[in-house]
Amino acid sequence: MKIESAELLRLEVPLVAPFRTSFGTQTRRDVLLLHLVTAEAEGWAECVAMEDPLYSSEYTEAAHRVIADHLLPRLFGIPDLTAAGVAPALAGVRGHRMAKAAVEAAVLDAQLRAAGLSLGEYLGATQPQVVSGVSVGIHDSLESLLGTVAGYLADGYARIKLKIEPGWDLEPVAATRREFGDIPLQVDANAAYTRSHARHLARLDEFGLLLIEQPFDEEDIAAHAELSRIVTTPVCLDESIVSARAAFDAIRAGACSVVNIKPGRVGGYLEARRVHDVCAAAGVGVWAGGMLETGIGRAANLALAALPGFTLPSDISGSARYFAQDITEPFEPVDGRIAVPAGPGIGVSPLPEALATCTVRRESVPVPS
Ligand code: NPQ
Ligand code: MG
User: Fold this and answer.
1) What total number of domains does the chain contain?
2) What is the CATH number of the domain that holds 190?
3) Residues 308 and 219 in one domain
């Protein structure tokens, strides 16, 4: 396979409601899509970087530029390009994992569409559906939080994740338990705490949470290991796990007993599968994270989340959780599960009208002849 043309698309998609985390309040998704054309098939991928470098150091505009100026040029001219060859060809560029993940995913989609194979089949998916959970932002009051959670439970979501930060932790968890009883419940701090909060976080133990996700800085593996020794709630890492090696080292350090897998954060679906394999070998459960993807990223995440080691409910929600209008046929949970697409590649494509509505910029990346 050889890349014949490449285009980057930027979309502005409004969120149905503001989403507040410890790193700020988002009201829209600044989406970066990559569209590749080869002689055999086209490939689509979504880059999960967010508009500002708040979740991680990557951000959309930087990912856009590094893909156009540094990543794609290293692939142009490779005549027998496959997804497995992408990471080695890009290894000279340091970092930029979310950008690299999008490039590899677009090549993989084209390769699989050409072969008539679904991403789930390619990755080794064993589950026809994925258990769908939902991530709930920080609210201004307990009353409004409980109203939001009630709505998601009525929508059939099988697990609730509450975003927490200092000043918004024990009370929202206690209120949610009081109101809804023994539902599957977990929390995510997006690195808002420091080691000095360890004793405070141990007070979450009485609520029987599935896990506490990334309380401390992404580079502070030692603090997570220390917390793991004093709490009974399983500690899960998200931001810290940037590769299969990082997962191996964090597990060995005793920093986590659960791992959130996001293909963008680790540099692609192939590395994400290696994270899954490392965790499975260590007896560490994994689950699929989410980055407010449109249907393009969501479809691919579903395929990965159907691997056998994904034993905890995912952060893959229905399209309507985030968007009034998705850019693909919308995904919808049925009885708390979302079906894994079965068609070739990621199994979905952008709907031209929906894409036209939210596209704000396009850049063709010239392929040298
Ligand atoms: C997490 N995701 O697990 C992330 C954080 C997150 C579903 O909680 C725009 C783009 C807004 C990416 C908000 C969930 C975002 C974003 C939150 C990622 O840590
Ligand atoms: Mg997280």
Assistant:
1) 2
2) 3.20.20.120
3) yes
Q: What is the DSSP track for 233-267?
A: SPEEESTT--SHHHHHHHHHTT--SEEEE-HHHHT
Q: Do 99 and 58 form a contact (C-beta atoms < 8 A)? A: yes
For ligand 1, is residue 122 a contact (CB within 6 Å)?
Answer: no
> Could you tell me if the CB of 300 is within 6 A of ligand 1?
no
For position 77, what pLDDT does the model report? 86
Query: Within 10 Å of residue 40's Cβ, how many Cβ atoms?
Result: 14
| pTM score over 0.70 | yes
Q: Which whole number is the average pLDDT over 55-78? A: 97
Q: Given the CA of residue 163, which atom of ligand 1 is nearest to it? A: 8
193 in a domain, yes or no?
yes
Mean pLDDT, residues 146-161 taken together: 98
| Domain of 198, in residue numbers | 121-339
Cα 39 to middle of ligand 2, angstroms = 39
154 plus 281 within the same structural domain: yes
108: enclosing H helix or E strand: helix 97-115
CA 253, 188, 199 angle in degrees (round to 5)? 65
Determine, yes or no, domain membership for 344. Answer: no
Residues 318 and 241 in one domain: yes
